[in-house]
Amino acid sequence: PDVFQTPYQSAPLDLAAGVDDEFQDLEPSTSHFYKNRASKIEDRLDEIREMSLVDIATTICDCWNANRGTSVVGIDWNNGYSLETLQVVAMSLGPSGIATVLARLCSNYRHWTGGMPDLFLVRMKSKDSANPLLFQRFGNRVSDEAPAEKIENDFGEPSCQPLEGIDLSFLSSTCLECMFVEVKGPNDILSDKQKLWLNYLVENNITAKVFKINEAK
Questions:
Q1: How far apart are CA 1 and CA 100, in angstroms?
Q2: H helices of the chain, where?
Q3: Is the dihedral of CA 56, 144, 109, 192 positive or negative?
Q4: Contact 121, 47 (CB under 8 A)
Q5: How many CA within 13 A on the CB side of residue 2?
Q6: CA distance 129 to 189
Q7: Helix (H, G, I), strand (E, B) or coil at 134
Q8: CA 124 to chain CA mean position, Å
Q9: What integer pLDDT is reported at residue 16 of this predicted model?
Q10: Are 143 and 171 in contact (CB under 8 A)?
């Protein structure tokens, strides 16, 4: 209760509450945000784990169309990735992977938004062994696309034309794979928080690696 006190908030007041600043690179305790709604969060994570890839893509599309333009922490409606790109990213991570990452962020959002790997790579593979690799262009940002058509909603207010999202027929002939990558230069080392993220991902069967860039000889 009372975590939303004005219509101008982009997040509940307890999202970053209950975090001790002394935790910089160590495993912190769970935040007030998680403790205040633990059962609901766990129920939703269980629902996500049971989703199919089609369910994931459809849910993202429905949420995008229902909430587009609403100010919310972590989402950039103007320069963020397009709906189609987010659908491909989510499907490549899969239901278990999505729940794994969300569980970490929900447990202590302020702490775990730092230390995540630099890159998220996606590979689309054809199920046809004679043509093993399939390349499809995605990765557009909202700003790269044509402006959304403006319409009026049921209340006569301006709104955006709903988007259909990606054509899911490709799933019948394509497999999606993903990998998190932390990039380090010649003199860089992993922080404790980066190590915790990498270990957490690997322990939960999500591919995560360190890419080391060496100086030319």
A1: 27
A2: 32-35, 38-49, 53-67, 83-107, 109-112, 192-203
A3: positive
A4: no
A5: 0
A6: 40
A7: coil
A8: 18
A9: 74
A10: no
81 secondary structure, DSSP code: B
Average pLDDT, the chain: 83
Q: Residue 159's beta-bridge partner residues?
A: 151
Q: Write down the residue that tokens 């009026």 correspond to.
A: 152
> Tokens 């490549």 — which residue?
92
What is residue 77's predicted lDDT score, i.e. its pLDDT?
84
Question: What is the token pair recorded at 59?
Answer: 């849910």
Share of residues in the chain with pLDDT > 90 (%): 44
Better pLDDT: 147 or 177: 177
Under 8 Å between Cβ of 46 and 29: no
CA 141 to chain centre: 15
| Digit-coded pLDDT (tens) for 30-70 | 778 888 899 999 999 999 999 999 999 999 999 999 998 88
Inter-residue contact 163 to 148 (CB < 8 Å): yes
pLDDT of 9 higher than 90: no
For strand 158-160 and strand 208-212, is the pairing parallel, antiparallel, or unpaired?
unpaired
Chain position carrying tokens 């929900």: 106
pLDDT at 69: 87
The two three-digit tokens of residue 22, written as one number: 């002394």
